[in-house]
Specification:
The protein is mainly α and 115 residues long. A two-stranded antiparallel ribbon has the order 1-2. The radius of gyration is 17 Å and the shape is globular. It starts with 5 loop residues before the first helix and ends with a helix. The relative contact order is 0.14.
Length: 115
């Protein structure tokens, strides 16, 4: 049987996804249950939301922690095009809808999370 080298094991550990804990899943569920924060700010209630992990303050190819998740509908998250979807141009999107940091503060306030 082939034994993996120490270098290979270390590489695997770096690139393996960490499992989401039960507590994180509960938090993400609460975040998603708020509905899209951008839609809510525009007077549209009860929109379905996906979880967006802000890129502010994290390195390339890294994701922010689940505690920093923001609820966005598919259009505001990824399908809406420039100015509508954050992944279609973040600077333009933030100029229209607010920064990820501002929206995260609003989400935390709604959830009663102190940070």
């Amino acid at each position: 049987m082939h034994k993996k080298s120490k270098i290979w094991r270390n590489m695997e550990a770096c690139f393996m996804k960490k499992k989401t804990t039960k507590q994180q899943k509960i938090h993400l569920s609460k975040v998603a249950s708020l509905g899209c924060i951008v839609c809510a700010n525009n007077g549209i209630q009860d929109s379905l939301a996906e979880i967006h992990h802000p890129r502010t303050g994290v390195g390339m190819g890294q994701r922010s922690p689940h505690s920093s998740a923001i609820p966005l509908c598919p259009a505001h998250h990824r399908t809406g095009g420039p100015g509508v979807a954050i992944h279609a141009g973040q600077k333009t999107w933030e100029a229209i809808h607010g920064t990820e940091t501002e929206l995260l503060a609003q989400v935390r306030e709604l959830l009663g999370v102190k940070c």
